[in-house]
Amino acid sequence: MTKKSVPRRLKVRYGLPAKVLFCKKCVISNQRPVSEVEYRHKISTKKKVINFDKQGVCDACRYAEKKEQIDWEKREKKLLTILDKYRRKDGNYDCIVPGSGGKDSGLQAHVLKYKYGMHPLTVTWPPILYTDYGYDNFRNWIETGGFDNITFKPSGKVMKLLTRLAIENLFHPFQTFMLGQKYLAVKIAAQYNIPLIMYGENEAEYGNPIIDNAKSLRDKSYFAAKKLNRIYLGGVSIGRLKKQYGLSQNDLAPFFPADYRVLDKTKIEVHYLGYYVKWTPQESYYYAVENTGFKARPFRTQGTYSKYNSIDDKIDDLHYYTTFIKFGIGRATYDAAQEIRNKHITREEGLALVKRFDGEFPDRYFNEIMDYLEMKPEKFHKLCDKFRSPHLWKKVKKEWKLRHTANQDGTDD
Predict the structure, then answer these.
(1) Coil, strand, or helix at residue 138?
(2) Residue 221 gets which letter from DSSP?
């Protein structure tokens, strides 16, 4: 475990740990938030981050070890019990699969329908700016896979404004997209009286302790809110969005959590398929290619070495770049950490990939994104400097350098 003390004079932002740790088994650092979906604060000062044990190993790696000990046949029997409880034969939908036709939603919808005999309704909150291949994958998912689909497209005008505000105030291009995506399935389930929502990967795969099993909507705090006046969208209060930006309650409603009163009347359950069947991202990719017509990106994703993870939205790449600025963790770190846990690469290989690709600026769609957001590129670059936490970054000869890296070649290593 690499452990570095930070002088007290260095400011620590976002509620991150002052001491930077790197996992002994993978390449992730303890600066990784367990959840990037925030709406109750302008910028959280109490951010929860991935946990490291006394041996210097992160929760995600420990979960990967635990997966090898799980009796997956027994877990699948539990899944069958749940599906038998909700399976319908009257032509109505019996479960919801949220997704956009990527490798994960491709697998989960196909397995539920064709292996387990369920009748899923797929639900999509579309990307802010579709990539051509992302849209093709969405169409192939529905057409080749043979799934019914509800796509909810929020107002482009409102989405554009909230996305720009989220960048300006939070440096989080995906905040409003992630909020809409998170809450849409629950709202549709309540509206259509569909009792089961099945997500794909278990969040414990990434060290998120929020969900390690099923989550009944009896615990509504993750999906619903009682008081909208506590919510910030794009780092701006609801009242200010209405007064200063002229947005109405109707404009903002798609981004709100579900209403507690509505969920009080439901018996909806949320489950993760990855809890019941062994989940491996690379295997999901192969399955989706074969069964739902999924195609990888025709070129390497900037900031990393892969071609098939999170490729639907042109803003995806920029989002991962902002995590590099705020938390010192780029897209190659996320990908390499997961592949190390799945034993597809060694830690040494992961370190080399991180050194080569992490923090690469995603210029392929950058100007198009800035045009869409009506933001000058120069402003974005200034925001990069504004949102760097001093305990992570140091300026050396007019160039920003990380103080600590997984490769132990930071300015303070």
Answers:
(1) helix
(2) T
The dihedral sign for the CA sequence 5, 7, 8, 14:
negative
User: What residues does each domain of the chain span?
Assistant: 72-276, 301-388
With beta carbons less than 8 A apart as the criterion, state whether 134 and 128 touch.
no
Instruction: Please name which of 137, 117, 104, 120 lies closest in space to residue 286, comparing C-alpha atoms.
Output: 104
State residue 3 phi and psi, 5-degree precision: -135, 120
Tokens of 215: 């989550």
C-alpha span between 48 and 193 (Å, rounded): 34
pLDDT tens digits for 310-367? 999 999 999 999 999 999 999 999 999 999 999 999 999 999 999 999 999 999 999 9
- Answer whether 194's CB lies under 8 Å from 225's CB: no
Task: Give the span between the Cα atoms of 346 and 348, in whole angstroms.
Answer: 5
Stated pTM of the model: 0.91
Instruction: Pick 72-276's CATH classification: 3.40.50, 2.40.320, 3.10.590, 3.30.1490.
Output: 3.40.50
